[in-house]
Specification:
Rossmann fold; six-stranded parallel sheet; 12 strands; 43% helix; globular
């Protein structure tokens, strides 16, 4: 069994309390709770950044070359002697430590989750060279990705299979029993969302919509969202996951409208659709592997396609039996094993493999 040093931007200890109380789903722990059950020793150094290092990180993000989180990497180095392996699930933030491994300065292996493509933003040619050097410090198949496209990008840059696609899955026990057929379409979240297109389609379809997002994101576009059939919930702090789960249980469907781009935003909302057992309406993106049409659980719409969103909203609103069938089918995938436990078992296999290669 391995001693696993776990780092993350939010506290897994605090989240575990919420999970144990039934107020949050365990897939947001990215397998850490299961790893303890599998017999590993968890050394949890997750939590918010120090203000000083957060300021440094903010300034460094202006540079064209990604350095990762200085805060995370300092914390890791302070406790590295206690660990057999480092696990960094909150996106890949350990660039300098990978370079340390590539140059032989560090030996402890790192297991990361890459949520988004690595080579994004300006100066992509220079970034590519930098990332190629960094990836030389990665063990084979030690970077888990939540998208086939992200795994392919990383492996192409590395000229080796250092990344492996590991499908995420929701907490099967968290979501309350779905009410069928339910009423209205719910969309929550902030990052990469296209609520303007969603609201325009909602006005044309006449389907009841509920949009839940952060006030600072919604206020600049509030005039675009106003309509008698659209309820906008503007929040200043995150609503309890258990409250959102009740909202999902009562809905007809869950929507994840997204803007153009190569980020992997929206995946948490997709997990909610599977876990809650509701039809999924989502924007097509190259980084999203899940096709609701192919799976028979919902509708996929092109970026910015108001007409496409209108048709999808009208379809779920006008055919409750079909919507119920789609929702039950979505939940069936979870009940057959597409869940947080399966994801955790994949992380466990990666950790055992890299530790077994004698890199401690």
């Amino acid at each position: 069994m391995a001693r696993i040093l776990v780092v993350n931007s939010y506290s897994f200890r605090d989240l575990k309390v919420e999970v144990d109380a039934g107020r949050a789903p365990n897939h947001l722990l990215y397998g850490v709770d299961y790893l303890a059950k599998f017999g590993h020793e968890i050394i949890d150094i997750s939590g918010p950044q120090s203000r000083r290092l957060a300021d440094i990180d903010k300034r460094l993000r202006r540079l064209p070359l990604p350095l990762g989180s200085i805060d995370h990497q300092v914390r890791i180095l302070e406790r590295l002697s206690e660990a057999d392996v480092v696990y960094s699930p909150g996106d890949l933030r350990t660039h300098l430590l990978y370079l340390g491994r590539a140059t032989g300065l560090l030996r402890v292996p790192i297991v990361s989750i890459a949520h988004h493509p690595l080579n994004r933003g300006r100066a992509q040619g220079a970034r590519r060279f930098w990332l190629q050097a960094m990836l030389k410090g990665a063990e084979p198949s030690s970077i888990a990705t939540l998208s086939e496209a992200v795994a392919s990008e990383i492996n192409t840059m590395a000229s080796a299979k250092v990344a492996v696609h590991l499908p995420w899955g929701p907490d099967p026990a968290f979501y309350p029993k779905a009410e069928y057929p339910g009423s209205g379409v719910v969309a929550i979240g902030r990052t990469g969302r296209d609520y303007v297109t969603f609201a325009r389609a909602g006005r044309l379809a006449g389907t009841p919509l509920t949009i839940v997002s952060w006030a600072e994101y919604l206020e600049p576009i509030r005039n675009e969202l106003e309509a008698p059939n659209i309820k906008v919930v503007s929040i200043h702090e995150m609503l309890p996951h258990s409250e959102l789960a009740l909202l999902f249980a009562r809905a007809r469907a869950i929507a994840v409208p997204l803007v153009a781009g190569d980020s992997l935003s929206g995946l948490t909302g997709i997990m909610d659709a599977f876990g809650a057992g509701k039809p999924l309406l989502v924007t097509r993106k190259p980084t999203l592997d899940i096709d609701p049409v192919e799976l028979g659980i919902g509708y996929a719409i092109d970026v910015g396609d108001v007409d496409g969103w209108t048709r999808a909203l009208m379809a779920v609103n006008s055919d409750p039996d079909r919507a119920t069938e789609m929702g039950r089918r979505a939940r069936m995938f979870v009940d057959k094993g597409m869940d947080s436990g399966h994801f955790a078992a994949g992380i466990d296999r990666i950790i055992r493999r890299v530790v077994g290669e004698g890199s401690t």
